[in-house]
Request: fold
Amino acid sequence: MPRIAVDAMGGDLAPEEIVKGVSQVSLETDIQMVLIGHADKIQSLLDGGSYNPELISVRHCTSAIGMAEDPKEALRTKKDASIAVAARMVASGEADAMVSAGNTGACVLAAAKHFKLIPGVRKAALASVFPRQTEYEGQDRLGLLLDVGATVRCDAIELAQFAIMGNAYARRVSKVRSPRVGLLNMGAEETKGGDVLVQAHRMIREIPDLHFVGNVEGNDIATGRADVIVTEGLLGNVVLKLLEGIAEVAANVASHAAHESWRWRLGMAMLSSGIAKVQSLADFRTYGGAPVLGFEHLCIKAHGRSTAPAIRNAIKVAAKAVRDQIAPEIAEAIAHVR
Amino acid sequence: MPRIAVDAMGGDLAPEEIVKGVSQVSLETDIQMVLIGHADKIQSLLDGGSYNPELISVRHCTSAIGMAEDPKEALRTKKDASIAVAARMVASGEADAMVSAGNTGACVLAAAKHFKLIPGVRKAALASVFPRQTEYEGQDRLGLLLDVGATVRCDAIELAQFAIMGNAYARRVSKVRSPRVGLLNMGAEETKGGDVLVQAHRMIREIPDLHFVGNVEGNDIATGRADVIVTEGLLGNVVLKLLEGIAEVAANVASHAAHESWRWRLGMAMLSSGIAKVQSLADFRTYGGAPVLGFEHLCIKAHGRSTAPAIRNAIKVAAKAVRDQIAPEIAEAIAHVR
Reply:
């Protein structure tokens, strides 16, 4: 029975939506959860809805790290912050994995501070799912991009290790048995992108049981040519935020257009079912979240604007990853790339 | 009177659309143009339409570099390729700038081989315009992103020099007198992104007469927070191709949707004027092209799928840059950043 530590105080909609998500999971699964945060507040929110008390416990703590706080400084001064308490609970074995919708940097740093890296792993990676077109029947409608900001710059070995970590995670979490792994680059040819990428290409190609599709370019991100896209944190972060930014601009343009003329308003109404579909696809709030990979324990960073369904997804994904024992598989594959 | 060397054989729609674009410019301006390519073919295309023979001459050459050819190898073996002839004409003073819709790598390499770097400039940059939302009245609807692939990785000085080059070009080509220049990074704080970006931030901030808005993140690319976005080639190339890829996916989804149901078809019809507007905004074929910056002479790389209007824009932009003498301004500003 996996036990998940849930940061009740992290995120724009905490603690209300976090508690709601946890309550829902308690009625649908056998996942054990600990809500970490202000106990009275959490208990009154729990009591305001329905939940299974056998699966939920509460760990009181008095402080939380804000979304805009400097992660390093905040973790240093707020030892009792919900996110730090969650990480310590996982590290000490009181829980198996953690979920937080709070400050991303604090999530990654709390994991780095309290969790051990998987033997052989050199750097942790923050991975994020993103919406894209699909290319084949049965392909997941979401791709996985890593790293998106845990490690700014990477050498070839680190990139090859990210390929292994992303592959292991995607195999468990998506329905795709053999995800297509690509290396983000500025050209399809293996000679492109400078020394680090040329060497990373060669190393990833040699990894056993990994379906490497070679270099992928910027346009391939949107088309679904790869299910797992490997890159350094700087590049991954820019790509992820650009995808989010375009989705927001498109939504703005559409809502602005609807105010402009009756023709447009009517047209948008005719298209409403399709627009809703596209919006849900591009809505980062509905996804499970971004796993911090490379540590012996899993930390899932849910989107800052997570609502209850997103928290619910994140907890279920974390529990699945615990059940499927992703860390040992990564440790074994990593032995090929050091 | 600027004289522009135009590669008649480069691009998916060459030589037909190239010759058509040149013919149009000859009827509208006083720009002198040399069409470089197969003389008989070009002359018969010219004669098929109307043009001003006083402004157009033809330089015969027998070979051309294909879009998929390896640029280095092709330039080495095809000394007589249209793009190489164009670059040599500019270098020898027979023309003032060149325009090609051909192989991008060959364009950059031909410039690198035959043109001198502006004194003080360390690396050339390929810049590209891209569509985005605007933030203020009078802002150009296109932003400028550089480098998009001429230089894979950059140090801080090179990035600061790109800021100067992009600023000088944008001031001349767009209507914005003082473009907002941003440094692409993974966070707004000046401490983000690793040593190179932290140092580049500090250097760009010190450049006189340059409106630096600080770090811009991925989502800012779509919103118009900066008019000129500075980054290394690897990152810029991925961003540019991602923008192109998303535009294509959106077009595919829309046309697919229209086939699905009469409701959608009708909805699309109601929205057609708006969709056309968005499409024209996202249509990379209608833009003037991507300047190769940093050399004493300008080379403008038009999109590979350029039609006559795109070639026309590219030639006019090249002529304007020649008239406005962009290279001396860059040389002067560069003196601050070495």
Chain A has a mean pLDDT of 90.
